[in-house]
Design goal:
By secondary structure, this protein is mostly helical. The chain contains 47 helices and 12 strands. A 6-stranded mixed sheet has the order 1-3-4-5-2-6, sandwiched between helices. Strand 4, helix 6 and strand 5 form a beta-alpha-beta unit. Helix 36 packs across helix 37 and helix 38 packs antiparallel against helix 39.
Length: about 950
């Protein structure tokens, strides 16, 4: 893929008008549409246009017109054109084009998944440009674009919808690449405008012929134009073919044919031109058609067994015939239809042999593996060891930016090999692993199931089982993961490093399943061996594992110490930063802190860890960071910010096609909406959480159970609410209780008592007693135990003790619940007056947290006690005219007025750019606007300046 400039483009490409002086004919409707898109972007809104049509119908010509219009309107134009060889290329040509224009080069992330780094770096570059001028991003021949650029095109038009950016893609209508189909589906869902270029009317073709010839075509020539079937490129080629001969006579402003004879294969005017070229030029074009639309003359010479100098006459003839151009460092066909015509006129056997020879030649010159691999694939196999090595390299290079495309290529390469070739298995194993990183998880598992019966060697089978286990584990199906792990461990003669990896994954699976005893037994000897390792990641991973087992046993202080040490070590040992969740030390440390008296420290830990993960390009981890922040903020009673972080988790997971954090993030959103009082939204979130949660015993099952019970409770279905909790929290061991933060535990007891079945409440109480017996150092655990005892035994002193304990823990909604529970207990006595202050405090705390449903419930209770209170208002009401923006959202507005990009705002506020993206989305929705320009205008009208004054 290459950057292009209209002034330099050859006649058949973007620079068609500049070089030939031909007008764009018959596309007035399309020009009006792109003009409207330009106007929309100039007005401050993003827009996306997809230009679709058959080859030669004028897509590139329309983009050239758009390019010129955009520059006249003051747009900053970023223009790239794809080549057929780009389909297996690693990296993003769009990013390269931006860097070459800016002179910047943000270092690539050293990680096996660069997708988020790629998105963020291109986002930053485009946002910076859009602050200075509207931007037009033009991608021609997008059906051949590299997978990373296609990934960007699927994602960024939605993410940057509020920025002054126009996205225009030209794509062939008949493309069969699955990844291109997904781009089209995603852009259609985003509301992209579709411009389908059909055949031109006969009259327009006659106008084009007149433009080429300088005279109107006579009836005979006009009849021949019908053979172009409305395709302007073919019409131009047909007319030029006659104009280059003596077959056309000009008389009285009319061009007519001197004879009716049509050259052989005249409708393929390229073949006609080849007939008139010298043999050297024909051979050069044939070899060039194999090498690609753009090709290196030296490579073509080597394939022809010639010196470059001996080809100069052939190059000159091809240039003079208008079949090639030489505007850059490589020769290029003037239009891909020309290349295709030459290529397809070669016999199939010749084509495949030439592609195989091209692969060998390019490999010898050190060409990029993607280019060599394309020729191997085009040769149709069989593939020798060198070819397989090259293709495997291409697959792995591609996997970091486009894992789904890498998986498709790996499977295609495996298809070139004989059925029982042992080289197929590593390729299929890699393909399954890469598919497991995307939404195509079911395809990955189907591929594993199809490959396992092939009579594999033990090592190959174990590796395949491990990949399947990791995919199941990432998808939340821990039972299936454990089955694959055990099947792998049962195989003979496995290398020790693979056994260790299998055992570590199995131990983690037991932790996920809540079977800490089994986890400890699996880890016997493993932890000690890990501590002796020279690999810092292995040592840190062992510390985190130990911390997890101590935590779920209830030894919170010991778990906290180990997590803190692991986090400090990871800060000095970069290799440890690439551990997968939840083994990322800082992420696990935040989980432990959320259950302790150091809840306030979670914000710093999560912010620092998340920003470091962003800087390192660890995109796969970001949904987990956002989900962890959502849980911590919910525990702190910051409902609005918790919802934003949960939404950011879903947004990043959607961009990266990650499914794992969705049940947890969705459950947090459901719990927030229950507190706010929007049960319909809560129901939608719960339904989505249940879709991806697996069984109640698995990782995020307790969160889903909590949300399910909370919704049933809000709807007055006591039995259903209690039943939802029993499976997850019916044990007297603290393991499952610790899967959710402490402020939720009294709610479990309250719901159980409402159903008049004390067994669940007593189980929670027993787990709490076990927890405090193990560790009495945490005040929050003591406060929760007092709260639960107060509920179980209707003990006002215990509830009062809980209230005292909660006051210093930073959990306002837990404090509000204890106040409300004590108020209810006092209101049942003869003298209800002492209950009123507790209800009033509970209402104030609920209001400050945005828990509108809780506040309204307490307000009704106070009215029954004879206390009049004001109706529940919107706690987030901001300055007049700015709607119900939250405090966090209002902080962004002066920074937008100041002209900061989302990245700059994130840096200023020390938050994730994805959090800022979500806040901005909420601001636009609440204010009924679509762009930063409109927001700035509205803020200035309301007197909000860049310094925050209003």
């Amino acid at each position: 893929m290459s950057s292009t400039d209209p002034a330099d483009d050859p006649a058949g490409g973007r620079g068609n008008q500049a070089v030939t002086g031909l007008r764009l004919r018959g596309r007035d409707r399309e020009i009006t549409a792109v003009h409207e898109a330009l106007d929309a972007v100039r007005g401050g809104r993003g827009a996306c246009v997809v230009v679709e049509g058959a080859p030669g119908v004028g897509k590139s010509r329309l983009l050239a017109e758009l390019d010129e219009m955009a520059r006249r309107f003051g747009f900053d134009v970023v223009s790239v054109r794809a080549d057929e060889l780009d389909q297996y290329a690693a990296g993003a040509a769009l990013q390269s084009a931006l860097q070459s224009c800016d002179g910047s080069n943000r270092a690539a992330a050293a990680t096996d998944d660069q997708r988020l780094w790629l998105l963020d770096s291109i986002t930053d570059a485009l946002e910076d440009r859009a602050q200075r001028a509207p931007v037009a991003v033009l991608v021609d021949d997008a059906q051949w674009a590299d997978p990373a650029t296609l990934f960007v095109l699927r994602t960024l038009p939605g993410r940057l919808a509020a920025s002054r950016i126009l996205w225009v893609l030209a794509v062939r209508a008949d493309t069969e690449r699955p990844i291109v189909a997904r781009v089209r589906e995603d852009l259609e869902r985003l509301g992209a405008r579709w411009l389908t270029l059909g055949p031109l009317p006969q009259q327009e073709l006659q106008h084009i012929a007149a433009d080429v010839l300088g005279a109107r075509p006579a009836p005979g020539l006009a009849r021949l134009l019908r053979g172009a079937a409305g395709n302007p490129f073919l019409a131009i080629e047909l007319v030029r073919a006659f104009a280059d001969t003596d077959a056309v006579r000009m008389r009285a402003g009319e061009a007519s044919l001197l004879h009716d004879g049509i050259p052989v294969s005249f409708r393929r005017s390229v073949a006609t031109r080849l007939d008139r070229l010298p043999e050297d030029a024909v051979h050069l074009l044939q070899i060039g058609s194999v090498l690609g639309r753009e090709f290196d003359l030296g490579t073509a010479a080597r394939m022809l067994g010639r010196q470059v100098g001996s080809l100069l006459s052939g190059v000159e003839a091809a240039l003079n015939a208008g079949l090639l151009s030489a505007d850059g460092p490589r020769l290029a066909f003037r239009h891909d239809l020309i290349r295709q015509a030459v290529h397809e006129n070669l016999p199939l056997a010749v084509r495949t042999a030439l592609h195989r020879e091209a692969a060998d030649t390019l490999r010898g010159t050190g060409a990029r593996s993607a280019e060599v691999g394309w020729h191997v694939v085009m040769s149709g196999g069989p593939a020798d060891d060198d070819a397989v090595t090259t293709l495997t390299t291409a697959v792995r290079e591609l996997s970091s930016s486009a894992p789904d495309a890498a998986a498709d290529l790996a499977q295609r390469v495996a298809g070139l090999l004989p059925p029982h070739d042992r080289r197929r298995i590593p390729l299929l194993t890699d393909a399954a692993e890469y598919l497991g990183r995307t939404r195509r998880v079911h395809e990955a598992l189907d591929l594993v199931d199809a490959t396992l019966p092939e009579g594999l060697e033990p090592l190959q089978e174990a590796c395949l089982h491990l990949v399947a286990a990791e995919i199941h584990q990432a998808a939340g199906d821990d039972d299936a993961a454990m089955t694959h792990l055990q099947q792998a461990l049962d195989l003979p003669a496995l290398p020790s490093d693979l056994c260790v990896r299998l055992l570590k994954t199995k131990a983690t699976g037991h932790v996920y399943l809540g079977d800490i005893t089994a986890a400890e037994q699996t880890g016997t000897g493993l932890v000690e061996a890990s501590y002796r390792s020279h690999d810092p990641a292995v040592v840190v991973s062992a510390m985190v594992f130990q911390s997890q087992t101590f935590f779920y046993r209830g030894h919170l202080a010991r778990a906290l110490d180990l997590a803190a040490v692991a986090t400090r070590r990871a800060g000095t040992q970069s290799a440890a930063l690439y551990l997968r969740p939840p083994r990322i030390p800082a992420l696990w440390l935040a989980t432990v802190l959320t259950a302790t008296d150091r809840l306030a420290d979670t914000e710093r830990i999560l912010r620092e860890g998340q920003r470091e993960a962003e800087a390192l390009g660890l995109g796969w981890s970001l949904p987990h960071w956002h989900a962890a922040r959502a849980c911590a903020l919910l525990e702190q009673g910051a409902l609005d910010d918790a919802a934003v972080e949960a939404e950011a988790s879903l947004m990043v997971a959607d961009e990266l096609e990650i499914t794992l954090p969705i049940p947890q993030a969705r459950s947090v959103l459901a719990l927030v909406e229950i507190r706010r009082g929007d049960l319909a939204k809560a129901r939608d979130h719960l339904r989505a959480a249940e879709t991806g949660s697996g069984t109640h015993t698995q990782r995020y099952g307790p969160w889903v159970s909590l949300a399910r019970a909370g919704l049933a409770d809000a709807e007055g279905e006591d039995g259903k609410a209690a039943a939802a909790l029993t499976g997850s929290f019916g044990s007297r061991e603290p393991t499952r209780l610790l899967a959710v933060p402490p402020s939720h535990w009294p709610a479990i007891v309250r719901i159980a008592l409402r159903d008049e079945d004390p067994s669940l409440a007593q189980a929670v109480s027993g787990a709490l007693r076990s927890l405090t017996a193990q560790d009495e150092s945490q005040q929050i655990i003591g406060a929760v135990r007092a709260h639960v005892d107060g509920l179980l035994h209707h003990d006002p002193r215990a509830l009062a003790s809980a209230i005292t304990g909660y006051r210093s823990t930073g959990r306002p909604l837990a404090l509000a619940a204890a106040c409300e529970d004590l108020g209810e207990l006092m209101a049942a006595s003869a003298d209800t007056t002492p209950a009123i202050p507790y209800f009033e405090e509970a209402g104030q705390l609920a209001s400050a947290s945005g828990a509108g449903r809780d506040q309204e419930r307490i307000r009704r209770r106070l009215r029954r006690l004879g206390v009049r209170t004001a109706p529940v208002g919107n706690h987030t009401a901001g300055p007049q005219g700015l709607g119900n923006l939250t405090e966090s959202e209002r902080k962004l507005i002066p920074l937008v007025v100041e002209g900061l990009t989302n990245r700059a705002i994130a840096d200023r506020l020390y938050v994730s750019v994805h959090t800022v993206n979500t806040h901005m989305k909420h601001i636009f929705t609440k204010l009924g606007i679509n762009s930063r320009v409109e927001l700035t205008r509205l803020a200035i009208e309301r007197g909000i300046s860049a310094d925050g004054a209003d």
